[in-house]
Design a protein that fits this description.
Rossmann fold, single chain, 7-stranded mixed beta sheet, 9 helices, alpha/beta
């Protein structure tokens, strides 16, 4: 609310959020040097972030501390997954939240025939944001407002890749993704520095074929899984 008691418009809210941040243009240049995209994709991502900044004033979509670095911390972090699954067209993003990596991937794949991103989100406000993000970017996706465990094995048609970011411990992500990986999907999970401990814990319940890739955008890791099998 303003001092006059009137709510700010989405545009005013976005401007207010931008004002104290560092130069987003510089952050954008750094991000696109890490993960280059077409001009069309860049324009879609610009519209997406404008929307995110407007909604951030009323719905917590990303950590406020990351707002000055939206492009490097969130956009480039999501885009790097494409290089690990270059032929994937149909993706399932678990717990999509503010749209990372799901909406970013949808923006990048908008010109690819047959591309589709399934965005699974249980929070109604965030699901509404995701639908609007797909609409204004004309990105190929569908939002599932549901619990992850109730939705993954109900997705119709093949899925090439399943993703998750900042959602749950690895052993739980594996449990969610197992139905899709069993049908041929690759799993790509963005994790932090404690990935080795999470792998050790997951190994108590799961046998996997795992590869670790150092993140291009920080100290984290990407866990790549092509096979999942429950122990015992």
């Amino acid at each position: 609310m303003t001092r006059s008691g009137k709510s700010k418009s989405p545009q005013a809210a976005a401007t207010a959020l931008r004002a104290p941040s560092s130069d987003l243009a510089s952050d954008k240049a750094t991000a696109l040097a890490l993960a280059a995209v077409s001009r069309e994709t860049e324009q879609r991502l610009d519209r997406y972030l404008d929307l995110l900044l407007a909604w951030q004033a009323k719905t917590n979509l990303v950590a406020p501390s990351t707002l000055p670095h939206l492009w490097t911390r969130h956009i480039a972090d999501s885009l790097q997954l494409l290089a690990l699954a270059p032929s994937a067209k149909v993706w399932a993003d678990l717990g999509s939240g503010g749209g990372f990596p799901g909406v970013v991937l949808a923006c990048a794949l908008a010109g690819t025939p047959g591309a589709k991103i399934h965005l699974i989100e249980r929070n109604a406000k965030k699901a509404a944001f995701l639908r609007e993000a797909l609409r204004i970017t004309c990105a190929p996706g569908v939002v599932h407002l549901a619990e992850i465990g109730d939705t993954v094995d109900r997705i119709t048609g093949p899925v090439d890749c399943v993703t998750a970011r900042a959602l749950a411990p690895l052993h739980q992500l594996i449990s969610f993704a197992e139905p899709l990986v069993r049908q041929g999907a690759k799993a790509l999970f963005l994790k932090g520095q404690d990935v080795e401990a999470e792998l050790t814990e997951a190994a108590k319940c799961w046998k996997t074929e795992c590869r670790l890739h150092a993140s291009r955008t920080g100290d984290g890791w990407i866990v790549e899984l092509d096979r999942i099998e429950r122990r015992g």
